[in-house]
Structures are given as structure tokens and as C-alpha cells.
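Aim 2 progress update. The chain analyzed this quarter is reproduced below.
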Amino acid sequence: MIVATTDTIPGAEIVETLGLVRGSTVRSRHIGKDIMAAFRNVVGGEVVEYTKLLAEAREVSLQRMVESAEEMGATAIVGTRFITAGVAQGSAEIVAYGTAVKLA
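Predicted C-alpha cells:
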């Protein structure tokens, strides 16, 4: 499966547009990671615990989007984007979305 942030794929022809596909996940913070993050807020620097949490969430949402496109018979996804939204205190939703297409 080709996944692109562009609206076209160089060297490939889109022969059919199948529609919107998306994948999402909601992740919450972990008390142990919160303690480490609070310590990092005092001394400064990257909050690695949250960076890893969000990276994993992006991968899960991306994989779910790809699975949705495969179910539609797509060979590629164009116009891929990610959005993040707070759901409740301490949790966030990551959504990957794009347009499922068939390539020649």
C-alpha cells in the first residue's frame, strides 16, 4: 500500500477514487510516565515518555487507516493527514485520514 501526503503519486495514474479512509486511536497518560514527565518539566528537555506515546499512537492510527483502505480494495492512499484532539483530561485522540484510490 502506497501512502502519500500528496494528492498524486509521481509516475502513477489514479484510475478510481474510492473515498475517505481514516483510522484513530485514543491514548491516555500513564501515572509512572507522568511522574517522569513532571520531573522533566522541572529540569527541562524533551518529554520522551510522551513523544514515544504519541509516536505509537500515530502508527496505530496509520495502520488502521491502511486496513480500512485495503478493505475497500484500494492500492494507495493520497492526501494523508494527521490530527490530534484532546478527548478528556489526560487522553488524546490521534486520527489519520486520506483518500483511498486505485492506481493503474
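The CA atoms of residues 50 and 79 lie 26 Å apart. The chain is about 35% helix and 40% strand. These observations will guide the mutagenesis experiments scheduled for the next reporting period.
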